[in-house]
Automatic annotation (TrEMBL):
Cofactor: Mg(2+)
Species this protein is from: Inmirania thermothiophila
Transmembrane segment boundaries: none
Reaction(s) this enzyme catalyzes, per UniProt: 8-oxo-dGTP + H2O = 8-oxo-dGMP + diphosphate + H(+); 8-oxo-GTP + H2O = 8-oxo-GMP + diphosphate + H(+)
The entry's keywords: DNA damage, DNA repair, DNA replication, Hydrolase, Magnesium, Metal-binding, Mutator protein
Residue span(s) of domain Nudix hydrolase: 4-130
Organism placement in taxonomy: Bacteria, Pseudomonadati, Pseudomonadota, Gammaproteobacteria, Chromatiales
Top-level taxonomic group: Bacteria
Protein name stated in the entry: 8-oxo-dGTP diphosphatase
Family per similarity comment: Belongs to the Nudix hydrolase family.
């Protein structure tokens, strides 16, 4: 069965003023009855995903979707049906959501969603929601601890909540020393720190996870660290994205979107190629390469979970 033969389901993430997320309960007598879900339903033949989302949310909640961007599309196989769960974040809508089909409705804090009984296809969706918009990668030449602290403090103060310590070619002792300093600062700010390279070293230094280079990704047959530790992976094409998903990585970084001074010879993907690859990846994908926070809306509309950057995020 091809991807096109899957039942295409569109669902929406709606937030209230306090940032809580709307979930509704699947009625008795239906597939996965009684479980909480994100409102939505099956696309009609020939219908575009955004049009289907707007129709479903009008039918189920009585609201008009004005703007939405894709969050993640999860291919999932239930014994009785195969679906593509295509989840969108609703950015703007009109009307207050009301249960128009008698379904139970609740606004839940993002952190509390994991405690609800939801369909298994929704697990990767919760993972995508838990990731931040910005992913800071440290500058490659950085070896000085004071410089690391100064830069990191500023970046964290500006709202960065996910950091990759990347020290290509550094001695293990240097990685250990700088990771210890970075870990203290990140913990204090409620940010997560990933160390680029060997998963065993990332774990040994007490990081929140590992970021796999493309060569590490090639070498691994399975996810190197268990949840809740994070596993990110550097990808440049469809095959690497497929591998990241196959080993159960939490997210990928896809680059280069634009030409960059650090990789002048690498052919840039451009946004339309990026969008094509990210939409089919089945895991959250950050856009990297000549992008910064100013590109966030564009990246999100192209299906990125957010943007990753060195220069644009390093103070
Ligand atoms: N809406 C929604 N469906 C989900 C989620 N997670 C998940 O596995 N599903 C599955 C359950 C169903 O098999 C399928 C949605 O199909 P459905 O029958 O509810 O679609 P619908 O709203 O168009 O229902 P209907 O008009 O046919 O009654 O997707 C989710 O978060 N939201
Ligand atoms: Mg539905």
């Amino acid at each position: 069965m091809t991807a096109a033969a899957r039942l295409h389901v569109v669902a929406g993430i709606l937030r209230d003023a306090a940032g809580r997320v709307l979930v509704t309960r699947r009625p008795a007598g239906r597939h996965l009855e009684g479980l909480w879900e994100f409102p939505g339903g099956k696309l009609e033949p020939g219908e575009a995903p955004l049009a289907g989302l707007a129709r479903e949310l009008a039918e189920e909640l009585g609201i008009q979707v004005r703007e939405a961007w894709p969050l993640i599309a999860v291919p999932w196989d239930y014994p009785e049906r195969r679906i593509l769960l295509d989840v969108w974040e609703v950015r703007r809508h009109e009307g207050r959501p009301r249960p128009r089909e008698g379904q139970a409705l609740a606004w839940v804090r993002r952190e509390a969603l994991a405690g609800l009984a939801m369909p298994p296809a929704d697990r990767p969706v919760l993972g995508a929601l838990a990731l931040p918009d910005l992913y800071l990668v440290t500058p490659p030449q950085l070896r000085d601890e004071a410089a690391l602290r100064a830069g990191l403090e500023k970046a964290l103060a500006r709202g960065v909540r996910l950091v990759q310590l990347r020290l290509p070619g550094a001695a293990e002792a240097t990685v250990r020393r700088l990771a210890a300093a970075a870990r203290t600062l990140c913990r204090a700010a409620g940010a997560r720190l990933l160390v680029n390279g060997d998963p065993a070293l990332a774990e040994a230094v007490g990081a929140d996870g590992v970021h796999l280079s493309a060569s590490w990704l090639r070498r691994l047959e399975a996810r190197p660290l268990p949840a809740p530790q994070l596993v990110g992976a550097s990808c440049h094409d469809r095959a690497e994205l497929a591998r990241a998903r196959a080993i159960g990585a939490d997210f990928a970084v896809l680059s280069p979107v634009r030409p960059t001074p650090s990789h002048p010879d690498a052919p840039a993907l451009g946004w339309s190629r990026f969008a094509h690859l990210a939409r089919g990846a089945g895991l959250p994908v950050y856009a990297l390469g000549g992008v910064g926070p100013a590109d966030l809306a564009r990246a999100r509309h192209a299906g990125a979970r957010g943007i990753a950057a060195i220069r644009a995020l390093w103070p």
